[in-house]
Design goal:
steroid metabolism; HMG_CoA_synt_C_dom; HMG_CoA_synthase_euk; 474 residues; steroid biosynthesis; sterol biosynthesis; 15 helices; 19 strands; alpha+beta; Peroxisomal Thiolase, Chain A, domain 1
Length: 474
């Protein structure tokens, strides 16, 4: 058993998102809304979505299998597996139990952990559980593995363009290139009905959009103040945004990310006015006397603070926005897709940098924490993580469907939600090689999955069932 692990954090990452997507500008035209409502108003470019072949289980199987294979990880080396998701497949059986098929094939059934659920926060809860386990006396020397997976879908209407789907897997252990600064963490949790899913017969949430944005910013304020206090206790000096090289946010839509970073700058101004610079200080001074409640509803403050924050936003936040804008809202995977975007865009220059992370889940739960980047050892290096995730190739190989086809798919998914005794019917050619997919749900609601594997001559595909048997499929 290893003792006193140092530099505990993320050793390796991989991300999966469906290859099917719809362009937001095409949705604007189809929905008959004003041009720019989704692309500028929400700040979104594209939205991934699941067909009947895919769900949070298949995405999790795909990303875990890929991570283990591409980094050469022996499945027996995994000692804890935590899944974060708010997408309900079964009210009792955890997503983690489906993933155990991968490890049982290698004789490893001694893996702690199950699922964590609270809206978009579940992935962070799972991540903190794994980090705490490695840092604790209970650690047995093996790796932790975290999966954040969700399919975000909304009823027809103004919220539908804020959907998306993805799964992110993270390997946790000591001597990591991405280290948790565990002493510096701020958490805020309270009771709110801003977004919730009380109707178990429907996949769609009940959303109070205005309240949800206010709750998000309240959680951000509280977490940032507590994070700053912890930092100042540990370092003996004030913390401001100048101490963070990059900032990644949970991203329901990009416009909220822009508002959130501006809010952090306003927090710096409120705490230590001189930390934001003379020009910003002069422009924010008229709003210094606002109460917290009034500041959340002030459109003038929102506009001015975003203008003041824009130059810093372009440097510290913009690199994190690629996947959230291209894939959409990924719920629990959203924050970690933003971090994956930073690695993709900046991996050559990240050593020694600090990334500030804000996680939010409605209802509500929120945490701010920081990661410090250091030089890793192969295969756990930032360059290799960027190569494995292969973000550009995954984005470039997507199939862009029309809004009409997207709507047809949404209707199909509505009829299949909670259904039994059906076989999936969508085109397998839309799946990337290596993707796990749902083959059928039987009369007892049992779900069966297969993996698309390209044959050597590429004349037909082969399908590897989840139990390891290979079958030809024309």
């Amino acid at each position: 058993m290893a003792s006193h692990p140092e530099n505990v954090g993320i050793l390796a990452m991989d991300i999966y998102f469906p290859s099917t997507c719809v362009q937001q500008d095409a949705l604007e035209t189809f929905d008959g809304v004003s041009k720019g409502k989704y692309t500028i108003g929400l700040g979104q470019d594209c939205m991934a979505f699941c067909m009947d072949l895919e769900d949070v289980i298949s995405m999790s199987l795909t990303v875990v299998s890929s991570l283990l294979d591409k980094y050469g990880i022996d499945p027996k080396r995994i000692g804890r597996l935590e899944v974060g998701s708010e997408t309900v497949i079964d009210k009792s059986k955890s997503i983690k139990t489906w993933l155990m098929q991968i490890f049982e094939e290698c004789g490893n059934s001694e893996i702690e952990g199950v699922d964590s659920t609270n809206a978009c926060y579940g992935g962070t809860a799972a991540l903190l559980n794994c980090v705490n386990w490695v840092e604790s006396r209970s650690w047995d020397g093996r790796y932790g593995l975290v999966v954040s997976t969700d399919s975000a879908v909304y009823a027809e209407g103004p919220a539908r363009p804020t959907g998306g789907a993805a799964a992110v897997a993270m390997l946790i252990g000591p001597n990591a290139p991405i280290v948790f600064e565990s002493k510096y963490r701020g958490t805020h949790m309270s009771h709110a009905y801003d977004f919730y899913k009380p109707n178990l017969a429907s996949e769609y949430p009940v959303v109070d959009g205005k309240l949800s944005q206010t709750c998000y910013l309240m959680g951000l304020d509280s977490c940032y103040k507590r994070f700053c206090n912890r930092f100042e206790e540990g370092e003996g000096r004030q913390f401001s945004l100048s101490d963070a090289d990059y900032v990644a946010f949970h991203s329901p839509y990009n416009k909220l990310v822009q508002k959130s970073f501006a809010r952090l700058l306003f927090n710096d101004f409120s705490r230590h006015a001189s930390s934001v610079g003379k020009d910003a200080q002069e422009k924010l001074e008229p709003y210094a006397g606002l109460s917290d409640e009034d500041s959340y509803s002030s459109r003038e403050l929102e506009k001015v603070s975003q203008q003041v924050a824009r130059p810093l936003y372009d440097v510290k936040v913009q690199p994190s926005t690629l996947l959230p804008k291209q894939v959409g809202n990924m719920y629990t995977a959203s924050l970690y897709a933003a971090f994956a975007s930073i690695i993709h865009n900046e991996h050559d220059t990240l050593e020694g940098q600090r990334v500030l992370m804000f996680s939010y889940g409605s209802g509500l739960a929120s945490t701010m924490f920081s990661l410090k980047i250091r030089e890793g050892q192969h295969p756990f290096t930032l360059t290799n993580i960027a190569d494995v995730m292969d973000v550009s190739s995954k984005l470039d190989s997507r199939h862009v469907l029309s809004p009409e086809d997207f709507m047809v798919n949404m209707k199909l998914m509505e009829t299949l939600y909670g259904a039994k005794d059906f076989i999936s019917c969508s085109d397998h050619n839309l799946l990337r090689s290596g993707t796990f997919y749902l083959t059928q749900v039987d009369s007892m609601y049992r779900r069966f999955y297969a993996q698309k594997v390209a044959s050597p001559d590429d004349t037909h595909e082969k399908v590897k069932l989840a139990n390891g048997i290979i079958h030809d499929q024309l």
